[in-house]
Amino acid sequence: xxxxxxxxxxxxxxAMVVSLAACGSSGNKSGGSSxxxxxxxxxxxxxxxxxxxxxxxxxxxxxxxVDEINAAGGINGKQIEYKFEDDQADSEKSVNAYNxxxxxxxxxxxxxTTSTPCTAxxxxxxxxxxxxxxxxxxxxxxxxxxNAFRMCFSDPNQGSASADYIAENKLATKVAIIYNSSDTYSxxxxxxxxxEAKAKGLDVVAAEAFTADNKTDFSVQIQKAKDAGAELVxxxxxxxxxxxxxxxxxxxxxxxxxxxxxxxxGILDLDGFDASLAEDLMFLTPFTANAxxxxxxxxxxxxxEAFGDTPIQSQQMLMTVYT
Length: 323
Description:
By secondary structure, this protein is α/β, with parallel strands linked by helices. Helix 3 runs parallel beside helix 4 and helix 5 (155-168) packs parallel to helix 6. The longest helix has 20 residues, at 52-71. The chain has two domains: 7-152 and 289-322, Response regulator (Rossmann fold), CATH 3.40.50; 155-285, Rossmann fold (3-Layer(aba) Sandwich). The strands form two sheets. It has a six-stranded parallel sheet with strand order 1-11-10-9-7-8, sandwiched between helices. Helix 6 links the parallel strand 7 (174-180) and strand 8 (203-210). Helix content is 41%, strand content 17%.
């Protein structure tokens, strides 16, 4: 089961197109000329490494939108040139990718895909007065300046919305949390969730952390949640670690309800993962390919035709532009 929030609208998409057109002017210190017949849009995200599913989704979604916009006449008559750079979800590589795109003549950036690299790159785009729009970086600092925008919810939004949903739907009263204390995304959601959970009368019976250096064996965290009598475990983490937690909890005979955030999207596509372990798993996402509205179904069909795959939540922003 998935619970999702609509993070954008066609009105917002229209505003983005207007903003992109404006960036073709001399207001951008680094980009191309408004006299050019083309408008250069760059993208940054991981197309290799652990988070590649998200960067690839964004890369393909942008391409679909670019092709559609160009076929319809472009932006104010200018055809879009599009180039995407792989950052492997690494901040240093992301800044290097930004500089590569800037040298290419980029006039607007869609990215970066993940939060920590985006927070690094926004310092560069702010200095260059470069329009930046991230489809999926949820950390508050990722868009801390007035040149940067996001199309998804923020980490605090996810934390508070998760606690509200659990409490209002009476999913549990005793809740455990397993989070990555070395990750800005995970720890940011955890902090807001813990505060809101208390305000909503939920009893957080265990809050167990792990780090990037120790993210394969979750036996201690699982046992503490089990011993504390947790009825639901909140996982503000990415799907790779979540898949291990679900498998290890199953072996330990621990079967609570599971609730995650947008980083959970992609778990069913993970090689070797027993999909039955995710039965009834709930998580927040700004997009689901199973939605029955006409715009979503058209986007999903066109994406499948173009790339032979089903889109995930990182394309939600591009779907809004596309439609």
